[in-house]
Design brief:
OB fold (Dihydrolipoamide Acetyltransferase, E2P); 239 residues; 33% strand; Rossmann fold; alpha/beta
Length: 239
């Protein structure tokens, strides 16, 4: 059975694609998302085999969404687009395939045949032009807040999840794990549970046993582990 997630901001497009996919016995549509931010959470939790992903969506496009995913555990991505010119861009982003909307049944059947032949998870080594995140999606009550990188003081991981702490001290939960944020943002890893914005560092206090701690401009104290201290000194030009 091939588990499929449909991501498209148009309800009628999602409904029609679900309808044509439901004709196939070995396809299981596990859900639908109307935006890229919700899709990231569903992909992390449900781990679908395939994501049918609309390229053009408001706020965060389908291509931008790929930068928010773990590329070592990437599902197959089949881009959906209403315009031929986006096909080249889709393949530049290492898409498994692309479909023009409205989806043609015969063309979809060819995509499904390819998916059946290739069930190994897709790995994307690099996404040209899409590696760096410009904002971090955070979840509030009944809304999603896109926090700009310059407004992030640090990110912390705990038993309740990963939280983005803004320069004003506001804490917001995010679905993105620390290793994704470390790889795709300018944030600096200083501890296994912390990333910090170097622009927010006021001073570094040296402790015993090779440990240290960061004091931010807001007065927040963030631990620094021995493992990451050499990288911090190199990044900040500390001899």
């Amino acid at each position: 059975m091939i588990n499929v997630l449909i991501v498209d901001d148009e309800p009628l497009a999602r409904k029609e694609l679900r309808r044509v996919l439901s004709k196939t016995d070995d396809i299981n549509v596990i859900g639908e998302c109307s935006n890229a931010i919700d899709a990231v959470g569903v992909i992390n939790r449900e781990k679908p085999d395939v994501v049918f992903l609309d390229i053009q969506m408001p706020r965060v496009s389908g291509i931008e969404m790929l930068s928010m995913l773990d590329h070592e555990k990437m599902p197959h991505i089949v881009f959906l687009t209403a315009y031929d010119e986006f096909a080249v861009q889709a393949f530049e982003q290492h898409a498994f395939d692309y479909l023009l909307k409205p989806v043609n049944q015969a063309r979809l059947d060819k995509t499904l045949q390819r998916l059946r032949r290739d069930r190994e998870p897709q790995k994307i080594d690099q996404l040209p032009g899409a590696n760096q995140l410009r904002q971090i999606p955070c979840f509030g009550q009944h809304h999603v807040q896109l926090v700009r990188m310059e407004d992030v003081e640090h990110v912390a991981s705990g038993v309740s999840g990963v939280y983005v702490v803004s320069t004003d001290g506001t804490e917001r939960p995010t679905e993105l794990p620390l290793h994704i944020l470390q790889d795709r943002t300018p944030l600096l890893r200083c501890h296994r549970q912390y990333l910090v914005n170097t622009d927010c560092i006021e001073k570094i206090n040296f402790l015993e046993n090779g440990l240290a701690e960061i004091s931010t401009k807001r007065g927040q104290v963030i631990p620094v582990s021995r493992r990451f201290f050499p990288q911090i000194k190199e990044r900040l030009g500390i001899l």
